[in-house]
Amino acid sequence: MSVCPGGTALLASVSELWNHRLAAQILNELSQIRCRKLKRVQFNRARCNMLPMSNKRANVSGKPKGPLLGEQICFALYSTSLAMTKVYRKLLRELGLTYPQYLVMLVLWEHDGVSVSEIGERLYLNSATLTPLLQRIEALGLISRRRAHEDERQVIVNLSRAGRELRQKTGEVQDGVFHASGCTVAELVSIKQQLDRLRSHLMENA
Q1: 93 domain residue, yes or no
Q2: Ordered alpha helix ranges (H), the chain
Q3: Mean pLDDT, to the nearest integer, of 74-97?
Q4: Are residue 110 and residue 156 in the same domain, yes or no?
């Protein structure tokens, strides 16, 4: 088949154009394939990076090992005792007594003329702590101490007249503590009974 010179040039142009389009199509497909591979790699990298972060977040949000302060019954009792002592400190200021001195007076208002050892048993105090405490109360003129006639090793504590009269001024103290607690009488009775049982069990195992 013969082709005129002009036709030869036309065929060459068409062939060149076809090759350009084919090359462009191939490059486009290669670019798309490369983009898909790149996205897949980026996704896998992101996934790998997210896994340790998820574990770290789980560890942070999870419950840590070991005891927590807010869950300890001992700290609840300790902090409540501190708060109670602060309330008493303010209320006892007018009576001129500290909280430990007030506890000693409570024992003597129930039973006057008891021994130092009996007071210590009631208050769970040893003699080394109780003796200076009694000395300070005696200096206030509220009590007197004497040796027992039947056993001079025993020291008997008696209320003075001022000590007996002081009892009449304690009503406001009890009312103040009651209002500060924010509890009903029934709730306070129940709490005290539970604390008594808890103390008894703890003392048996101490």
Answers
A1: yes
A2: 5-61, 73-92, 99-110, 116-123, 127-139, 161-166, 171-181, 185-205
A3: 97
A4: yes
Residue 45 belongs to some domain of the structure? yes
The tally of domains found in the chain comes to: 2
| Residue range of the domain that includes 176 | 70-205
Please indicate, yes or no, whether residues 38 and 102 belong to a single structural domain of this protein. no
Give 126-147 pLDDT, tens digit per residue.
999 999 999 999 999 999 999 9
CB atoms inside a 10 Å sphere around CB 105: 22
Cα–Cα nearest to 84, from 169, 173, 163, 170? 173
Q: Are residues 144 and 198 in the same domain?
A: yes
15 and 116 together in one domain: no
Q: What are phi and psi of 29, to 5 degrees?
A: -65, -40
CA 123 to chain centre: 28
Average of per-residue pLDDT across 71-88? 97
Count the residues in the chain: 206
pLDDT digits (tens, 9 = 90+) for 97-108: 999 999 999 999
pTM over 0.85, yes/no: no
Q: What span, in angstroms and rounded, lies between the C-alpha atoms of 74 and 199?
A: 12
Q: Which residues contact 177 (CB under 8 A, 6 or more apart)?
A: 84, 87, 88, 91
